[in-house]
Design a protein that fits this description.
The complex is a heterodimer of chains A (473) and B (431).
Chain A (H helix, E strand, L loop, with lengths): L6 H21 L2 E16 L2 E6 L4 E9 L4 E6 L5 H22 L13 E6 L11 H18 L3 E19 L2 E20 L2 E11 L5 H6 L2 H11 L8 E7 L1 H13 L5 H4 L20 E3 L22 E5 L2 E2 L6 H7 L7 E2 L8 E2 L3 E4 L6 H6 L3 E12 L6 E13 L2 E7 L2 E6 H6 L3 E2 L4 E3 L3 E4 L2 E5 L1 E4 L2 E7 L1
Parallel strand pairs in A: 5-7, 9-16, 15-24
Antiparallel strand pairs in A: 1-2, 1-3, 1-6, 3-4, 6-7, 7-8, 9-25, 10-11, 10-15, 11-12, 13-14, 16-17, 17-18, 17-19, 19-25, 20-25, 21-24, 22-23
Helix pairs in contact in A: 1-2
Chain B lengths: L1 H10 L6 E17 L2 E23 L2 E11 L5 H15 L21 H4 L4 H8 L7 E19 L4 E18 L4 E10 L4 H19 L2 E2 L8 E4 L1 H13 L2 H5 L17 E2 L4 E3 L22 E5 L2 E2 L6 H7 L10 E3 L6 H4 L3 E8 L3 E2 L5 E13 L3 E5 L2 E5 L5 E4 L3 E4 L2 E4 L1 E5 L2 E3 L5
Parallel strand pairs in B: 7-17, 8-14, 9-19, 13-21
Antiparallel strand pairs in B: 1-2, 1-4, 2-3, 4-5, 5-6, 8-22, 10-11, 10-13, 11-12, 14-16, 15-16, 16-17, 16-18, 18-23, 19-22, 20-21
Helix pairs in contact in B: 1-2, 4-5
């Protein structure tokens, strides 16, 4: 089913064009991004049900002008007559810029020069979320919880979450007129198990450019998540040390994301915060490692037609057989660096600034089988379920919280489970230690990615199973 | 007025048993710097209405309170507003929650002083941040967000209250260069009020710690010695205790805490924790008069010498547990200890000044993080260390000692340092 463009944005298109046209004449460049993203989040737990707006909902506009030296922006959600907006920009926005300019230096940036383009993109899903009534969605989620409790008496609470989001965006500058509408959805199951004073949980995520059909996929994950929560009650603490590890695709994906995704965000190049600049064209990983990022690189939750600066999505090969090739960039960073933007300019919402951000980030598959990879490990761990990660673009440290690891001894997975695991290390050491890569490719997009500790955007990451050496604690 | 239009539309719907509106306006100024040069200036103006409709119904002889939450955007017309309300009434009929009451009107509190705080201009913040020039450390980049937030909470029971809030949020990265390479550290702080000295102190401390990191060596495989947490990680550590005594955690079977329980148990040596929830922590951007239900929030002692004194929670979860509500808030206070930081730093220890991202899981009690700067003491010498990690579980902690010196870290006021024994330290092989 085609995803129809927002009626609200369609009605505002004329006024947006008028404002952009007037401001472009005054400032040389002006653009407006209009967002109307809406959806619902359904949560069913043992103790309650909640229906609310999706956390990703937004409706508003962000206007950008070239102020003569760099760029100024105004975020707002009450569209006024064009003359009111234009007056606000001339008086308030420029006044704020002039005040700071008088105090000190301004980091200059060239004015945008762009090609004429006018395009519309409408995504497709199997089942439009609005075509399924809330009662059916709640019933399906409730059944998952009931099934979980039938399976185990140790489950003290079970959460089933389903979230559907329709993204609608319009981008207008003097030469660009772009529209896009698409739907993504995600589901999340969490089983919380308790025995005595001990409490453990496991989770499973589902995501994609999908509609309500994802509810049926979620059903298949209940048993796994319950069994995992149960076995984690018997988990042990890992003895800190360096181990051979097999990483599941979601763990591999977050390594890609934290290790070299954040490290090649090119606004970090502008700030001289990226060590990656010194390594362009050099070996940073084993020959088995090829890493992609791009809105057009995969079909997942961060696959869009154009980014938040009106640049079309691309597929960037960041690492090619171990060699660092290039970074990913927003428009302003590209203008400052004299490079080509890659369609990675993303905002948390219309209320926030654009940064260079990841989209769908993943390692390419290789030729090994998971069985061979496990058999090759004398003593190590099979790492599953990523909890969180943190980047260090300047000094290339990495931190990933992993829910659990299964011990591998003499080429076989044992019953011993360790949880949780903190993986740390030096990024090139970790990536150069990759010696086997499976032929699988799985991406997951249930999480979100922050820049520092804020600016959360939707991303996906993944890859094949990889074998590496890692420091675990 | 848009709020009148929404109220009138809600009142006209017979199937609505109760309703709540939170009207929120944000006026913000934002500045972004690369080194000391302006990268971008931004202005933000937003206005939103967060609405909840409640629908009570009976099924198989049992009463339920259904609800659905949604956003109404300013300038939506009457037809769109009505259609959105009807859609959400329909949704609420599938939400089978145990009934709970809404907040009823209380005595009005004096407005907070956000307007006074706003007299501090964003330009002053910039001047304070870049006042000190050091040779060996500098601000790589910074982001300054100044917001005036006005909230009005109205419900069908007659509540009509407001919060007038101010927030200064600053994020910055400091860099230093030693012989080998540049190193950096990430920092952020948030206040509702500030003066020049607070900002200058934050910057000076950040520069000093970053310069120290430039001399740091990789952490060797240390045995499990006492660890001293400082700054934000102290706040994070206490979140375990804060969450465990919340009505929501207890109702959702995520905690078995009850009044009288000894949270630390008898096996932990050292200090016993005393904790308050406090809606009026000086300078906290989270200090407010009313929670999001319009309930007048209260300062309450929740843990006294490790013994649970009171369970805290909003009207809904307090009703479920049959206790007095405190209101929902995020400010919390931990009483400091009796030992000075100088005395904490005796013998062999690892003091951690910066993590890449210290995290604590309040459900399981697991915590830890990668170390960006720590000081190792063998009892005589101090060595700056980086890399490696610490990890542990609250239940494994053998001893806790709180410093008598205090700090404010966003919504937390409490000890500046916390010495813990019983953690695992994972070292790096590289030396």
């Amino acid at each position: 089913m085609k995803v129809k463009f927002s009626k609200f944005l369609d009605e505002k298109a004329f006024i947006i064009e008028k404002i952009v046209s007037t401001l472009s004449r005054i400032y040389g460049y002006a653009s407006i991004l209009g967002s109307d993203t809406y959806g619902k989040r359904y949560l069913v737990t043992d103790t309650g049900i909640n229906i609310s707006d999706s956390n990703w909902n937004e409706r508003g506009f962000v206007l950008r002008i070239f102020n003569g030296l760099n760029y100024s922006e105004f975020s707002f959600n009450e569209m006024e007559e064009p003359s009111v907006i234009v007056d606000f920009v001339n008086d308030q926005l420029m006044k704020s810029f002039e005040e700071i300019k008088r105090q000190g230096r301004v980091l200059e940036c060239p004015c945008v020069s762009e090609e004429t383009i006018s395009r519309t993109f409408e995504g497709e899903v199997e089942i439009l979320p609005r075509s399924v009534d809330p009662g059916t969605k709640i019933e399906k989620l409730s059944k998952m919880g009931n099934y979980a409790h039938e399976m185990s008496k140790k489950i003290v609470n079970f959460w089933s979450v389903y979230e559907e989001v329709q993204v609608n965006k319009i981008f207008v500058s003097s030469k660009k007129s772009l529209r896009q509408s698409y739907i993504w959805s995600q589901g999340y199951l969490q089983a919380i198990a308790s025995e005595g004073e001990k409490m453990k949980y496991s989770y499973e995520g589902f995501s994609g450019l999908k509609g309500a059909e994802i509810l049926d996929e979620m059903n298949g994950g209940v048993e796994k998540v319950v069994r995992e929560a149960e076995i984690l009650l018997d988990s042990e603490k890992i003895k800190p040390g360096e181990y051979d590890v097999i990483c599941s695709p979601d763990v591999a994906g977050v390594i890609a994301h934290e290790a070299f995704g954040h490290g090649v965000e090119m606004d970090m190049f502008v700030k001289e915060r990226a060590k990656a600049v010194e390594y362009l064209g050099k070996k940073v990983a084993s020959d088995l490692v090829t890493m992609h990022d791009g809105a057009a690189a995969a079909k997942q939750v961060s696959s869009y037609f154009f980014d938040d600066e009106g640049i079309l999505g691309t597929d960037t090969i960041v690492i090619d057989h171990g060699t660092l090739k290039t970074g990913i960039s927003d428009l302003i960073s590209a203008l400052r660096l004299g490079t080509k933007p890659t369609g990675n300019g993303k905002r948390e919402s219309f209320e926030r600034k654009v940064y260079s951000r990841m989209t769908n980030t993943f390692f390419s598959p290789g030729n090994d089988t998971l069985e061979d990879m496990i058999s090759s490990v004398k003593h190590g761990y099979f790492l599953e379920k990523i909890s969180s990660g943190m980047e260090d673009p300047k000094n290339w440290g990495i931190q990933c919280w992993i829910l659990y690891g299964r011990e591998i001894a003499d080429g076989k997975v044992t019953d011993k489970i360790v949880s949780p695991i903190l993986m740390t290390g030096y990024v090139p050491d970790l990536l150069k230690s990759i010696t086997m890569v499976s032929g699988d490719l799985e991406l997951s997009g249930t999480g979100s990615c922050g820049k520092g500790h804020k600016e959360f955007v939707k991303v996906s990451s993944g890859g094949p199973y990889i074998k590496a050496k890692a420091r675990l604690g | 007025m848009m709020i009148d239009l929404i109220t009138s539309a809600l009142k006209s719907q017979e199937e609505i048993d109760d309703w709540k509106i939170i009207e929120k306006r944000v006026d913000g100024k934002e500045l972004f710097f690369v080194k000391d040069a302006l990268d971008m200036n931004r202005i933000k103006k937003t206005h939103k209405f967060f609405v909840t409709v409640y629908h009570d119904f009976k099924e198989n002889g049992k009463m339920y309170r259904g609800s659905s939450e949604f956003t109404i955007h300013p300038r939506m017309d009457e037809i769109d507003v009505e259609s959105l309300i009807k859609e959400n009434i329909f949704s609420s009929k599938f939400v089978k929650n145990t009934p709970y009451p809404l907040v009823t009107p209380s005595e009005k509190r004096k407005e907070s002083s956000a307007k006074g705080a706003l007299s501090n201009s964003i330009d002053e913040v910039v001047s304070d941040m870049y006042a000190e020039k050091l040779e060996k450390a500098w601000i790589n980049s910074s982001e300054i967000f100044m917001n005036h937030i006005q909230e009005r909470i109205v419900n069908s029971k007659g509540v009509d209250v407001s919060n007038d809030l101010f927030s200064l949020y600053v994020e910055f990265v400091t860099t230093s260069r030693a012989e080998k390479e540049e190193v950096e550290l990430y920092w952020s702080f948030q206040f509702s009020k500030f003066d020049d000295e607070i900002i200058k102190d934050k910057i000076a401390n950040a520069m000093k710690v970053t310069e120290d990191r430039s001399h740091a060596v990789r952490i060797p495989n240390l045995r499990d010695i006492p660890v001293i947490l400082t700054g934000e990680s102290v706040k994070e550590f206490f979140k375990y205790h804060l969450y465990k005594v919340s009505a929501r955690y207890i109702y959702e079977h995520l905690s078995n805490a009850k009044v009288g329980l000894n949270l630390q148990g008898s096996g932990v040596n050292g200090d016993r924790i005393t904790m308050w929830i406090d809606p009026f922590v000086e300078r906290s951007a989270y200090s407010l008069n009313y929670d999001e239900d319009g309930f007048p929030v209260k300062k309450v002692k929740i843990i006294d010498d490790s013994i649970v004194k009171n369970i805290w929670g909003d009207v809904r979860y307090a009703h479920y547990l049959g206790i007095e509500p405190t209101g929902h808030m995020t400010n919390f206070v931990v009483e400091p200890g009796k030992v000075g930081e100088d005395d904490l730093q005796k013998g062999e220890y690892l003091k951690i000044l910066s993590f890449s991202d210290f995290g604590l899981d309040p459900m399981t009690g697991d915590f830890g993080g990668e170390i960006r700067l720590g000081w190792y003491s063998d009892g005589e010498n101090l060595i700056p260390l980086t890399g490696g990690s610490i990890s542990g579980n609250v239940s494994d902690v053998e001893e806790i000692i709180l410093s008598k010196e205090t700090q404010q870290e966003d919504n937390f006021f409490g000890p500046k340092s916390l010495k813990i024994s019983g953690l695992k330290i994972s070292g790096s092989k590289k030396l």
